[in-house]
Amino acid sequence: MKILITYSSVTGNTKKVAKAIAEELKDCDFLDIKDVKNLDYDIIIVGTWIRRTTADPKAMEFIDKIKGKKVAFFFTLGAYPNSEYADRCIKNITELFLKNNNSLLGNFHCHGAVSPSVIERAMKRSQDDPHGSIEKRMERWKHASTHPDENDLSNAKRYFKKIIGR
Fold first, then answer.
1. Is 37 exposed, middle or buried (0-12, 13-18, 19+ CB in 10 A)?
2. Taking a C-beta distance cutoff of 8 angstroms, is the pair 25, 2 a contact?
3. Which residue from 112, 125, 104 is spatially nearest to 86, judged by alpha carbons?
4. pLDDT for the residue numbered 69
5. Number of H helices and number of E strands within the chain?
6. Residues contacting 84, CB < 8 A, separation 6+
7. What is the pLDDT of residue 102?
8. Residue 55 forms beta bridges with which residues?
9. What would the pLDDT profile of 25-63 be if each residue is shown by its tens digit?
């Protein structure tokens, strides 16, 4: 079974999770999305960071090229993993894969450190921002800065080992 694990990462969070999954599954190709030359794989696992409740632009463009494949995805996000925001992300990314007749094997997500540029922009928003007060956002960012941690990586490894059957 030929497996591709590919990712788009800005802060290194998503790459870190992708690498852990690749180490667990062993005999697979591990590539940055920009380095994928073909989609000749039995299973494609795509990692993305989150932008506006969906995959980042590079990942979205890549996902749109995948048609009729067995797929799975994972993402890292600055929001809490058990939040409504995370649930919307799962729904939106799932729809990206299903619209091209892919067979979705599963998905995984975990907290990830927020990019300093995102924090800088967010600090300029008003206190009434829908993402919460500056104090609440700073608390969430502080918690996110320690992720993905070893527990997140272990959970990702275990999850993908189970769904891939290796």
1. exposed
2. no
3. 112
4. 98
5. 6, 6
6. none
7. 98
8. 50
9. 999 999 999 999 999 999 999 999 999 999 999 999 999
* Residue 68, both tokens: 């009729």
The tokens describing 84, both together, are: 């409504």
Distance between CA atoms of residues 118 and 120, nearest Å = 5
The pTM is what? 0.92
Token output for 66 = 């995948």
**What distance in Å separates the CA atoms of residue 54 and residue 105, rounded to the nearest whole number?**
18
- Cα separation of 45 and 59, whole Å? 11
Token look-up 């990830």 returns 112
Collect all residues with Cβ–Cβ distance below 8 Å to 140 and sequence separation of at least 6: 78, 79, 80, 132
Look at residues 29, 23, 62, 26 and name the one whose alpha carbon lies nearest to residue 43. Answer: 29
31 forms beta bridges with: 6
Find the helix or strand (DSSP H, E) in which 43 lies. strand 43-51
152 DSSP assignment: H
